[in-house]
Every structure is written in C-alpha cells, then in structure tokens.
Amino acid sequence: MPYRHPGTNIKKKLSITFTFICIVNFLYSQKTITGQINDSIVIGNMQNASIVLLSSKDSIILASTRSDENGIFHLPLNDTLSQFILVSYPNYVDFYQSIHPEGKNIELGSIDLFPKSRLLDDVTVRQKVSGMKLKGDTTEFIADSFRVQANASVEDLLKKMPGFQIDKNGKITANGQAVKKVLVDGEEFFGDDPTLVTQNLRADMVDKVQLYDKSSDQAAFTGIDDGVKDKTVNIKLKEDKKNGYFGKLSLGGGTRGSHENQGMFNKFKGKEKIAVYGTASNTGRVGLSWDDADQYGGGNGNSVISEDGNVITYFGMDDDSWNGQYEGNGIPLAQTAGAHYSNKWNDNKVGLNSNYKMSKLSVAGLSTSKVQNNLPTTINYSTTQVNTENKSLRNKVDAKLNWDIDTSNSFNIISSGTFKHINTFSSTNTLTQREDLTKLNMGQNINTLIGDNNKFDVGGLFKHKFSKVGRTLSIALDYAYNKNLSTGYVKSHNEFYNNLDELDSTIDVNQYKTVNTNAYALNAKAIYSEPLSKFSSLVFNYGITINNSHSDKLSYNQGNDALVYDVLDSTYSNRYSYDQFVNKGGIFFNYKKKKVQFNLGTNVLGISMDQKNLFNNIDRKRNFINWNPSANLNYSFTTQKRLSIRYNGTTNQPTLDQIQPITTNNDPLNLFVGNANLKPSFRNNYTVNYSDYKMLTDRDFYFYMNYGNTKNQITTNTYTDTSGKNTYQYINVNGNYNLNFYTGVYLKSKKFKNLRYGFSPSTYFTRSINFTNNVQNVSKSANYTLYMNVSKSVDSLFDASLRVGPNYTTNSFSIQSSSNSKYWGLSLNPELDVYLPLNFQIHSDLEYQWKEKTATLPQTSLALLNGWIGKKFFKKQNLLLKLYGFDILNQNKGIQRSQNNNTISQSINATIRRYFLLSLTWNFTGSITNSK
C-alpha cells in the first residue's frame, strides 16, 4: 500500500468542509418564495401543479418548478426584478400574482385553485389571468377568458379575440392574413368548409383556440420550409365536451318568399366524431366555404409548379363558364347536406377522417355595367346588360387514413372524389360608343352550356425515423385525374356602325360547341435528412412529375339541315395535348438552436414540355431549367416576441387554356387566343412577420410585410380594332410587383373594465403591365387604410363594438393618364347586442361603405343595416325565437366599381334586398357515458 502523508487527509477534509459551508451559506443567502397548492373544492393538496416565476417587464421565465406530493413548492427569488408568479393545473383556473421581494423571503401560504367547471361569478382571484399565451410559433387563446352569451357559436367567440375579423360570409382574417383552415382538435371537420365549424360548434365547448401557420406534412416532419404555409385555426375542445351529442335545428320564413332552414347533429364519444347537416335557403346561406373554388376547380384550366416544386393540375368547365359558386351577385337558392366520421383506434396509432358533401345551387342574376376602355389614341364606352340562370349539383367525398406503424414508421393515405354537373344560360346585350358617343357596335349574345366535371385524387406519405436522431426519410406519392365534358350553344347577332352612326356590317354566330378535356398528374417525391450536429442537418430531396393533358375544343356550324350542327369550324376548333415531365432535386441546410431556426437551400427543376397541335400535326418540344431557392429565419427574442423572415423563388407554368393555340369566340366581341410560345414565369417573394405580446398589460402587436416581383409574368395583349372588337392574347411581361404592409396593435384599457381597443394600419402597392394595341400600359395602384377598433362589454347588459376604416386610394395608367384617380373612402362597422330582462335580446349591425367621386366614376355609398329582436326560452336559454331584418334601409343595390389595367368599370347587380324573417332555433345537447 503506498504511503500517504497525514496532512493530505486533513487538507482534503478541510476542503470538503469549506465547500459545504459555502454551499450552505449561498443557499441560506438566496431569497426564496414558497407556498402550498390546494384544491379549493375537495380541500386537498395538489401534486405536480406547474409554478412559473416570470419577469414583469418582458415575461421571461426566471424559474419554474412543480409542487411535491404535499402541494409544497420552493422557487429562488430575484431581489432586483419586478416579477409575478403563475400557477396552473389542467382543468383549473390559473392563479396569478405580482411579487415584490423587498430583500426578504416570501411565503405565499395556501394557494387555492378553482376548477373551471365550478368557477362562479362571485369567486375572486387575486388578479385576472391573461386570455392569451404564446407557445413557440402558436398563439393560444383561452376561451373562457372571452365572455360570450349562452349558446353562442365559435364564430361569436372569435369575434371577441384580438386580431380576428370575420366578414358577413364567415371568412376569417387573423392579423391581416386570410385563415385557410379551421381544425377541431387538430383534425379537419367537414374538410374544406370552415364555416361549418365556426357557425355550428358552440363556444362553451371550446377550451383553447390556437392560431398558427400550418406546414405540409413532409415539411413538418423534416423541419424544412417547403413554401406551404396555411394560416390555421385549431379549436381545442374541453375534455368534458368530447362525450355527448349536440346540434342545432333552425326553421325560418319571411317576406319576399325568404326562407332559411338548417339542421346539424353531432355525436362525440372520445376520439369518435359523427356529424350530419343539411340546409335549405335563399338568403345567401349556401353552406359553402370561402375557398370552394380552389378545392373543386372552376374557371380556366390550370397546371402550375407549386412552391415546393410539384406540378398541380386542375381544370374548370370551359373558358367562360360559371364556376359553380355564389359570390353575392344574383338571387340564390341552395340546398346542401353532408356527413362526417372520424375516429382513432389502437392507442391513437390508427386514425380515420372522412367527409361527404352535397350541394345543389341555382343563381338567377341580372347585371348592368358601364365600362370605360382606355386605348392609346381614344376612349370607348360600353354598356352591358347580362341575364343569367345558372345551376350546379356537386357531390364530394374525401377520406384520410393515418397509421403510426411503430415509433419509427408512419403512413397516411388521402383520397378524394368530386362529381359536379352544371347547367348555365346567359343572355348579353351590349352597346359600345366612341369617345364622341356615336355608336360603334351593338348586339346580343346567348350562351348555354351543360357540363360534367369529375375529379379523383389519391396520395400517400410514408415517414421513417432512423435510430440516429435527426436522420429521417419520407416518400410521397400522389395521383390525380380530372375529366371535363361539356356541350353548349353560342348564338349572337352583332351590328357595327361607321363614324356617321350608320350601319356598316353585321356578324352572326350560330354554333354548337363541345369540350372534352382530361388530364392526369403523377407526383413522386423523396426527402432524406442527415444530422450534421445536435443543432444542424442537411436535407436532400428528389422527385419526378408526369403531367399529361389532352383537350378537344370543337365548334360546329349548321349544315344543310338547319337542325343539325355537323360542319366543323376549324377557326374555332382545336385538338391539343400538353405533356410535361419534371425532374427535381435539391439540398437544404437546416439549423435550430434555442432562439434561432434557419434553413437555406434550393431546388433545381428540369422541365420537358411536349406540345402537340393535333389539328395540323405540329409537335413542339421545349426544355427549361428552373431554380427554386428559399431561405427562412425564425428568431425568438423571448417566448412572447418573435421575428420571421422568409424568401421563396417559385416557378409557374402556362396553363393549358393559355397555351392552346385556339381562338375562343363564346363572346364574338371579346375573343381569346392562346399562345404556344409562352414561357414559365418566376416569382421572388419576401415575407417578414413580427409579433410581440405583453402578458401583464395584455398588449398585442403584429407586423406583416410581403414583397413580390415576377419575371415573365403571364398577362394579355389586348387589340381593339376600329369596330370595337377586342382580341386578347396571352403574353409574357416583366416589371410587375406588389408590396403589402399590415400592422396591428391591440390593447386592454386599465381604467375601464372590459374595454379593448386597437389600431391596424395597412398599405398595399401594385405595379402591373399589359399591352393595348401593342402599346405598353403601366398600371400603378396604392391603398392606405387605418382601421380602428374598440369594444366594450358589460355582463348581462350589452356588448358593443366599432370598427372604422378611413382609406385613401390612388390609381394611375400610362395610357390615357387623364383617367388617373385619387379618392378617399370610408368603412364603418358598428355592432351592438343589448340583453334585456326576461331573456330578451336586441342585435344590430351596420356595414357602411363610402367612396369619393373620381374623374370617371360617381360617388358611391352603401349602408347595409341588419338587426333582430329575440327571446330565449327554457332554463338553458337554448330555444331562440327571433325576428330578423336584412338590409332594413333597403340600400343593397349591388353596386361595384373597379379600375384594372386599361379599363374602368361600375356595375349594378341584382342581389338580395330587404326582407324580414321569423325563425325558431333550438340548440340541443346531451351527455354520453363512456362504457368500457
């Protein structure tokens, strides 16, 4: 055994003793805050309650812990900072209290938490908890912090939350950006129709409302931004509301034949959700979401390279056909129905989400418009009256299956099918005059069309995590098929006059037209991520896309038999195929550490296009190399202050209708010509987002900026001949850009209870180029708006809000600059609910719009006043008898005006006018007992 000097052990013991004394002295000198967490109802200690100490200045977390088995907690106390303590426990009301150290330990004693289900009006907590929190990239609103009336809807709840705006059609805007999706507990509910969630789920079922940007499944898995960012609202339900049934039944009828009937039944049992609904209405409630046109297709056919490099294909019925939607013009009659089923099994490893929707819609319209057409050397004026009768029947079914195979592998399948049938009729009368008001041309054009659009799409995504943390592989495969068949007639008579107002010539068209378009797209994409360190990784991707489409557009004239259209008109007929093959590969660098997340990279696309004109056997092959660079930076100054800067470069391909070399004469006065020489366009897009939330003062601040410019933007060259006929051909131009700003500040009054106010200035600038008679026309437009909001509520007495938006608009054109305009506008939206004794309620809202007179357009104003008086019955106040008045001042004249490129127009459209409707609405609910 080696020899040790006795002094060695003595020194070692002294060192240990000294260290121990220092630690004890430090712990003794460190100020602390202690307390005990209890349940106020059962009078018991609460283990594992969350206790957080935060800085009062910026809400930075200073310390955190959890209560022990006796409910006791200890936290170190900072002597120099103003701070507050936040205690939270699931399904209990948060406890919040300011802390003033004053150089000594603080003993809070017993802290009683109140269950949310038992919290009464006379219970007083030491200070009200903020109704809003920031969690990473998610803004979370605590639903119970925003008071709404009994049986209020989620839409009513969102109107109370800062930053949210909801228009008369139910479209949601949050912090200046349109909300694309509304989820329930992270899952789609009736798929693409968010209004079915916001207008039919009750506010008292909601625990939290989350607002965030939803990425694609592959982007969320890899952590690399692929350009897909959908502003999303997620409705998180209370646990005790997930087992029961609820619904709504409403019957209403009134003056001018108005009726509005709807019913919805929902049964929730744990993870299982079952729902059915139906509506029948002629008041504008069509039961369709605000972006159905995107979901189902409509308008011109389109085939584009998306921001993540994939080719997306969809086609509408025909160039000038109705898109199957009600957009506020005309008198609608709608019947809709749908069903939803979703569930999860095997410890949530397997999940199914499925929906069926049917909609039957007819719209009768009458529109009168006046258009000023600015030409390089003169001005033409057109007056047009259009009568329409449009009908559509659509069925859609979709399903999504998620399967978590094990901890390393998962798989999901998404499929959908849409079957749409439309029947349209339009009759157009047009008078065009020269600048001296002599007649240029006049005529009538009648169009009829019957068509079917069938779409099918199925896709799968496989995700695998390797044993090494951060190493992943995902493979996506998607197949889409789209077929359109339509037939119709074009009958027109047009007269053309010389400058002496004398008839010079006529053109008559009487043709039978058929359209047969089919397309399919196959996309395959693999993404592999390899970690470089704990905080960084490289992500590689490769994919191919096969996109083939074929279009027959044939026009027939009458032959010897006047009843038979059997003579092909080759001028307005064409058979065309448009095939694309895309190879795409890319590499991205990703870095993520605490406050910073950054990624940078690019995709390279090799695009081969094969264009075949089958009418004249011309085969044209073209190849392009495109770059899709992107960069994304997210920085969190604190948990409640964030900055995001993003850049994306994207490529868009010409659509089939734009590139097919055929002249479309559905309107003989406005001809459209395809251009087989179109190039792909490339867009640079820059976005900045900044948010800052102060928990103590409940102050919320947002800033949003977007700038984009496009190379080879696809636009039109319009040639107007001496007879007033317009021929539009698609061309590429450079120099287009847009710039948008939005800022929002929302505050809570310290002096007046339940008073909130805010300011949200916004600005946009656009510059666009087109050609008129081969002369370049540069259009510039700018708008400056300052929205101001104030709301005040007094429990059981009233809720009042006011939104005011003065604005200033400028429009300028390089052609006919005398038509440039600068004008003021104003929007005013007050809303008031008064709660009277015996459960009576009075509601009123006003939508006021005013625009100043310009050099070419008259002053316009609209005051759309709506209101109702109702009485609620029963203990739960779940039966409402209501007398509703729409457009009480009878001012809804459907006036619209616009300035675009070289045209200035104002139209008056038939629309829903004043009516009064008596309705009875029953909100019902019941509980379901879980059985094992």
Automatic annotation (TrEMBL):
Cross-referenced Pfam families: OMP_b-brl_3
InterPro entries found in the cross-reference section: OMP_b-brl_3
Residue span(s) of domain Outer membrane protein beta-barrel: 464-763, 772-922
Top-rank taxon, per record: Bacteria
The name this protein goes by in its record: Outer membrane beta-barrel protein
